Structures are given as C-alpha cells and as structure tokens.
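Residues pack. One example:


***
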Amino acid sequence: MFKKLANGEYSLKITFWLFGVLGLFLLSIITNTTHNSVLRQICAGGTLCGKSVVLFTLSNIVSVFLGGGRLLTGIGVHILIVTIFSVYAYILLRGLWKCSASYEGPVFWSFTAKTVLITLILLSLKSII
C-alpha cells in the first residue's frame, strides 16, 4: 500500500482525501497526544515548563538519557511517533507529486492539492515539535 502510494499509483482524489487529509489527521492526533503527555511530565517536574519537547531534550540530554525513567520512555515514544509521521509525510508528498503529474484534469486541482497538503504537514509539525 505504501509502495503504491509512494509511486503515485492512486488517483489524485484518493491520495489527497484518504491518505492526505484523513491520514494526516489521524497521525496528528497521535503525535499531539504523545507531545502533550511528555510536556505534562516535564511541567510536573518543574523544569522548562512551556518549552517544547525538543528544546527540553536538547538542553537536558545527559539527564534525560541517564536517569529519565518515565520521562525517557515518553520522549522515546514521542520521537518514534514523530519519525513515523515524518516518513509518512515524505511518502505522501512523493506520491502526491507523482500522481499530480499524471492527473488529466485541470492544473488547478493538482496545484491546490500540493499546496494544501504541504500546509497541513507544516502546521502539524509545528504543533508537535
């Protein structure tokens, strides 16, 4: 399924609505949940409350990985989910570009689909990092 998506073998409609809008929506819910969970753990510890998970991890890299306990598990899960999201977004954009190139309808729809999906991906990444 992902190989077919990456090769642009689905129609523009399927790629945009099913894999793009619905797929990104579901992954965004999961990534936002893990992100918020880690932030709650960071804020409960009283350290760097209000900063992102990435900034916290980078500024406390040694303590997170040597004695993180539950926090380390949460950060690890969040990093895994964000990695899955990033790989999915890459596959999705690659497939969208390929199926847009072979789309026989108006150019407006292929351009709009690309623009909307790029915007959705950037907004999702902004909220989970």
Q: What stands out?
A: Residues 2-128 form one domain. Residues 19 and 92 are 7 Å apart (CA to CA). The longest helix spans residues 12-44. The two ends are 28 Å apart (CA to CA).
